[in-house]
Amino acid sequence: MTTGQRSVLDSVKPLGYRGKKLSGEKSPASLVFLILIWAALAVSFIFLLVLIITTFVEGFAVMRPGLFTNYPSSSPRDAGARPAILGSVWVVAVTALLTIPLGVAAAIHLEEFADKHNKFNRMVELNVQNLAAVPSIIYGLLALAFLSMLGFQNKNVVIGGAMALGLLIMPVIIIATREAIRSVPQEIREGSMALGATKWQTVWRQVLPSAVPGIATGSILALSRALGEAAPLLVLGGLVFVSFDPDGIMSQFTTMPIQIFNWSSRPQAQFHELAAAASIVLLVLLVLMNALAIYIRNHYQKRW
Amino acid sequence: MIKDTDTDVPVLKPEEEARLHEQHGVPVHVAPTQKRGKNNDRVTDAILTCEDVNVFYGDFRAVTGVDLDFARNQITALIGPSGCGKSTLIRVLNRMNDLIDGARVEGKVTFRGVDMYAKNVDAIEVRRRIGMVFQKPNPFPKSIYDNIAYGPRVIGMKVANMDDLVEEALTGAALWTEVKDKLKQSAFGLSGGQQQRLCIARTIAVKPDVILMDEPCSALDPIATTRIEDLMAELRRNYTIVIVTHNMQQAARVADRTAFFTALADEGTGDRTGVLVEYGTTTQIFESPRDQRTEDYISGRFG
Ligand SMILES: Nc1ncnc2c1ncn2[C@@H]1O[C@H](COP(=O)(O)OP(=O)(O)O)[C@@H](O)[C@H]1O
Ligand SMILES: [Mg+2]
Q1: Which ligand 1 atom is at minimum distance from the Cα of B214?
Q2: How many domains does chain B divide into?
Q3: Taken in order A34, A39, A42, A45, is the CA torsion positive or negative?
């Protein structure tokens, strides 16, 4: 890729060379572009690295069991993220229960049963793609409006948060599931149908089992996004002092990202350290979830 | 080995048939009332018939005006150059074309005298009676055992002992001795030829009347091909077989009857559409073809 190499190539002139302008990877324009891309990548990567390192340096000192077992407190020495951790678990679990079955069912319908030429179905399809690009706070507002309609006084309840996050990740799950279903070869469906299986039996007993690794991978990635979200929950009033363990879908709650937001907006430096420590916990969790997703993809995905 | 089926199943010209009808007072020929072309023999004991079948993919007409009878417990080969609609036609015979977006069938296809495209006929039911083996072996991503048991289970067949049925099907497909010690292993571990015999075993496990095979050996080596051909000769006792093959020697070796198709260009649009050129016993088709195009194809001058 150096200019030296280029001049050699220029002088040699390969067979069939008709004096055309250099194109593809060897033209100066694309070389410049390539360098720009690499530079952009390097800059963002360095920022990320610096951020992660400073977070680890700052938070490592206060990584202590109390962080996991203590309730929030006005004294940084005693403060912990126990309710936030449990709150995150509750919200993400309920989100998964609400969203995965619905998202998978929607994907099955769109992929296997819906008439692809039907205008309405095409519109649904297009909008699923669009929904994936909607800012997360909008889903918070949507859930807020819905909860008010139902007459909820306190909107910061697990089920409300799960609804907002569920709306947020639904398109992601639908898209991932459709992808997984589409990767099951048509021959498998034909083999099943040729034996006299119904469409439904074919989907349920051949297509879905083969698509499970893809669906699991997509769902885990989607849930890891839900785990890291704060904005839609803040809209619901998630920035509250919760000094008890959430114990049901109607329970008040706070989550890890909100706790981090809370601590980092305090003036005292010790709270910033706590925020950093909580960030580490969240980061590790997210990395683990992503690793699990990648593991499932590599080890269970069927190769046809 | 070309079987001379003229001895056991007489091939009748329509005139002769009419004469026999008069003589015996019963129709000797079950289904078609339609005229057949001069190079298109009718069959006395047809289990499947096509009458003026046209197949469309959207606006494109892939097959035009096919009249064809398939004889019970015989092997019928469909041959012809690629793109002449053999796969299209064979998929019409068990309504697999219903699964293709935009595919449409015109004309009449009967199975045991019943119009299989009639409104009150369930395509699922048709496929239970008329099984299909595909070009590329397509075992399910399951164990060998479950590949066989899948069909009987989904169609709700009354099975006294599934193990026995699995053994019977695998034996019927000449695969039992090779796999009996690894029934619980994945079917993907089998060789291509074994996978194809597994697909045949899977098909006969649901006890169909007809087995359709679309170039079942095209992905296999010569030894595996021979085994499948031998198997077909065995299966012929209990099943009616329709096989698409691009290999003329294969048609000559296994088939009782052979239908030769070709693609004709439409004068207007230039689109090529598949038509039946000639149909008769394999002996007749290969030894005394009546149509010049058949002769050219058989002798390798075309296609
Ligand atoms: N699913 C399909 N959609 C549109 N056209 C098709 C489809 N399948 C086959 N065709 C067309 O129909 C014609 C006949 O194809 P096919 O039945 O596969 O021929 P053969 O099996 O004799 O080679 C070809 O021109 C092919 O391009
Ligand atoms: Mg074909």
Answers
A1: 21
A2: 1
A3: negative
